[in-house]
Amino acid sequence: MNRWVRSLDAVDTGVRAVRRRWYATPLPRRRDWQAVAGSAVVGLTVAVTAVASTGPWDSGQRTAERGWAADREPDSGQGHTGDGHSDDSRPGRPDDGAAPRPGAPPVLGALGSEGSPPSGKGLGKAFKKLLKDPALGNRTTFSVGDALTGKELYAGGGDDAVVPASTIKIATGAAVLTALGPEHRIPTRTVWDAKKKRVVLVGGGDPTLTEKQFASLATATARSLKKRGLKPTALGYDTSRYSGPDRHPIGVNDNIAPLTPLMVNSGRTDDSVKGPAPRALDPSADAAERFAGLLRDRGVATERTVSAKVAKGWTEAIDGREKDHPGNDGDGGDDGRPGTELGVHRSAPMSSLVERMLLNSDNDIAEALARQTALATGRTADFGGAEKAVRSQLKKLDLPMKGTRFADGSGLSRADRVSATFLTALLARAAEPDRAALRPLLTGLPVAGFNGTLGGRYGTPETERGAGLVRAKTGTLTGVNSLAGTVVDAEGRLLTFALVTTGAKDSRAAQNALDALAGRLADCGCR
Question: What does the alpha-carbon distance between residue 356 and residue 358 come to, in Å, rounded to a whole number?
């Protein structure tokens, strides 16, 4: 017995020494270590859920692949999994690497599966004092779930639909990924209008189009015109892909540009690429004038720039031809018939657009993706059509939809409503083995204390324990603050969480209180 007590004392002494060394380490160094550890566990969890769908498995190796290897290399003792794309880091793509030898224990199978998740009682005890912080305002609703099982572990008002602010962007991302898939790209095209002898610039709804990409499209268009001997008299620009009002209900605001399918750099009039900025009053007309100038610089002069609409079915016909013969950005077809594509630029894949939206809380991308969801489901690309489309796609995920309202895609509207339980359930869906298309909802979340909208947070003594371990989407409106994402707890378990406050008078103080709650999950075993 004495020997056992001495052993415990030795362990406790070692733990205390490690803790003293940890807290003596400068905060930036601690953040680096936490980020590496947190990213590793999140990555392993995602890898487990991704490869679990490709079974059956035996001792960490797919049985079919082990049999294949044994048939061909009987002396090797094992085969190697993988499809030759081990350097592919796109969301949802597993990197199997070398499988363990037959009979060896699974390398990843034990992650989060042998230990138990936190208990509701333990989480309640951990949250009790923090929830009394007056900075949280009049009301706080919350939900904590287990990413591995999808089970809700602890909640307070979790089923109540409340104003979520920008955390609704998680739902917007889920809807567009479900409707179009992670590889879809948004095209911006130039088309020849033979009847009126003009080039038509057709906006597809890509707010991320850059000056350099726009110039490349002009180069491709000029090349196509010269190749065919076509001499346009005018440049038209088509914004008919969107319908409804071109302003968000909040009105003119530096947080969002007018809603149009044709713009360059989200209509910004400065050199910024994210965050609030002055915007053009008519981004599509400005883009068209800029494109006319780019064509002129490339030897193609047009007499005027006019609003136009390509003939019905032209872009649909081009889309159909591309499905049969997919091509790269650049010149279009070889003839000069009406509807001939002269040039095209395609956006980054939808997975990247969703990640960028979540990382920087980009309102322009969010509203564009809501409208892409509407178009993909045959609805009008306006607020009403987008809401119906988003709802229809989210219903496919079997989520708790009671009381939800998707009045916009960005969360700027106070008419939006979702529950904390809805958000944690959605994040859990994104980690499921058979939903790899939703993985950008996890990989796009900002890392506490490091990047995106969480880059300047988690630097106080009350919150620093969550730095590098919490990944979450932020939300802020006057009197509303929210935080929803994932966190690795003290036992290495990946949890989902959502926290929403209403009535806070000091936004910064409310954010700090939410960060403290999420950070408490990071160092809590709570069993």
Answer: 5
Return the axis-axis angle of helices 283-297 and 211-228, rounded to nearest 10°: 50
What are the residues whose beta carbons fall under 8 Å from the beta carbon of 520, sequence distance 6 or more?
A: 126, 127, 130, 465, 466
Hey, which bits of 304-366 come out as E strands? 304-307, 330-331, 341-346
How far lies 323's CA from each of 134, 241, 316, 317, 346, in Å? 57, 20, 11, 10, 14
Asked whether the whole model's pTM tops 0.90, one would answer no
User: How far apart are alpha carbons 155 and 524 in whole angstroms?
Assistant: 16
Question: What number of other Cβ atoms are within 10 A of residue 388's Cβ?
Answer: 16
Residue type, 79: G
Q: CA 206, CA 428: separation in Å to the nearest integer? A: 29
Residue identified by tokens 């981004």 is 283
For residue 250, which of 272, 284, 276 has the smallest C-alpha distance?
A: 276
Residues 149-193: pLDDT tens digits?
A: 999 999 999 999 999 999 999 999 999 999 999 999 999 999 999
Q: How do residues 231-264 score in pLDDT, each as one tens digit? A: 999 999 999 999 999 999 999 999 999 999 999 9
Q: Taking a C-beta distance cutoff of 8 angstroms, is the pair 178, 429 a contact?
A: no
Inform me whether the pLDDT recorded for 19 exceeds 50. Answer: no
- Residue 56, preceding bond cis, omega within 30 degrees? yes
